[in-house]
Amino acid sequence: MKKVFSTRYSENAVSFSLLLLRLVAGGLMIPHGFDKLIHFVERAKDFPDPLHVGTVASLSLVIFAEFFCGVLLVAGLMTRLVVIPLLITMGVAVFIIHNGDVLGEAEHATLYLSAYLVLLFTGPGKVSLDRMLGN
């Protein structure tokens, strides 16, 4: 019980927490991107284009972020670099698509955005390909 109220932490606990955050935030994002990838043709017609780059380009960028960057995030490879497209995607979802409604429609995107910000600042932790490769 004493440990529950302690403010001390260990490096291993932080690394495990970062691994868990990477696995959850990346792993839950992958199906969103995969669904868009396999239904690309149907979705390209009416996909939102908030940055005015075209619906096909917008959908392609979202698939890149959600699927491909999500896979790299789970692996812990180029972690800080791959969270940037995810941050942009979730930022657009929260502030443009859902008009900043962080407690309503944009609640899930806000949670993802928060997790990606944490990973941008902290990095992947010990249990990652980045660490194994010495990055």
Describe the overall structure.
This protein is mainly α and 135 residues long. It has one domain. Helices cover 67% and strands 0% of the residues. It is built from 7 helices and no strands. Helix 1 packs antiparallel against helix 4 (55-75) and helix 5 (79-97) packs antiparallel against helix 6. The N and C termini lie far apart (38 Å). The relative contact order is 0.16.
Query: If you average the pLDDT, what whole number results?
Result: 95
Uncertain ranges: none
Number of domains: 1
Structural class: mainly alpha
Number of helices: 7
Q: Main β-sheet, in a few words?
A: none
The backbone outline, from C-alpha atoms, is globular
Estimated share of beta-strand residues: under 5%
Q: Based on DSSP secondary structure assignment, what is the total number of beta strands?
A: 0
**What Rg, in angstroms, do the CA atoms define?**
17 Å
SSE pattern, N- to C-terminal = HHHHHHH
Distance between the termini: 38 Å
Helix content: 55-70%
Key features of this structure:
single chain, 135 residues, mainly alpha, 7 helices
Quick take:
This protein has 135 residues and is mainly alpha-helical.
Helix and strand arrangement:
Blueprint: H1 11-27, H2 30-38, H3 40-44, H4 55-75, H5 79-97, H6 107-122, H7 129-132
